[in-house]
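Weekly puzzle thread! Below is a chain. First person to post its structure in token form gets bragging rights.
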Amino acid sequence: MNAAAAAEAAARGSYGRLLAWLAWQWRDVAAAEDALADAFAAALERWPVDGVPDAPDAWLLTAAKRRLLMAARRQRLADDPTLTVLWPDEHAAMPEAARLPDARLRLLFVCAHPAIDPTLHSALMLQTVLGLDAARIASAFLVKPEAMSKRLVRAKAKIRDAGLRFEEPDPDEWPERLASVLEAIYGAYTLHWSLADDADAGELAGEARFLAELVASQLPGEPEALGLVALLWLCEARRPGRRAAYRPLHEQDPGDWNATLIAQANAALREAAMRRAPGPFQLEAAIQAAHTQGRQDGHVPWDGITRLHERLLEIAPTVGARIAHAVALAHAQTDPAAGLRLLEAIDADLVAAHQPWWAARAHLLAMAGAHSEAAPAYGRALALTVEPRLRAWLTARLRAEEEAAARPAG
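Winning reply:
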């Protein structure tokens, strides 16, 4: 493996783990990010000359630690006793892999500290623990990348300046932070669909699923943690149905799905329901379970799905939930106009560059037979999409609607 490929592989597989460990030890997320960035830059400079090290992660960790120590010395902090406690030997090996998941989980809960603006909890976790850039995070939160970058900088400064505890929170502190942690993990999973590179997408999806399962294992019986695990298992179960090419759920062959994951998801969802504390992830999972079962049975229960969406909107009236509710209602009532009215009621500024809104609008317009309007809506959705397989599907839909619009009436 050449130097550039080795550095890219390390970035994909280890960035989040390395950053979590450095931030945990140094108590400064921004400084850890800068040090790790310098370490990767040094790798690209040194590895072509010296050769790729046998343990790239350990090399990067040592380089980042050295950078942090040098910065500390420049700030006249060399005599601070915490430095010798943190790194008695700056050439020490990287901690055992078994410790890293716990460190990452603790850092997730640090990022959800109540002293940090709650609207930034998930974004901070997506960048700090999962290594996503501000532009990609901004797309998920429907804000400009510049605005998101500034918010994240302020949040990291808050962690540093306020000296927020990096210790694992006490059990009575978990509930108030759990929702933000779960939201960030789900955000990472949903963002992986937009990645054009299969390796990057697979890494991010696997990381999100691992963290969801880790949280659920640390909080046995927590209904929302179970709900998120069930939701991700259902989504992963259907992945084979869209591996070669993007296919919406109604076009997939249920025979391609992973029956074991579906059964595990349904079991987790039943266990969560026994707690009688419904939350957004349980409802999201229930909606997906209904779609999955309906596709297997040949009859999608749109009325029940619509009611689940209405319950979800009472708890979490997000833009995504409103869009999904509009589509479900249109199918339940066999009335695309009803769904279109709900879409139009969403703030136009929020959805002007939101691909799912345009795709939903195009679908309902096509359902209504308004092909001349559906075509440009599909075109707008296509322009907002980078994932090649989804682009191919949207292109096919666009052409079909253009052809339908061009056919003579009657």
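Puzzle host: Confirmed. Bonus trivia for everyone else. Residues 1-95 form one domain.
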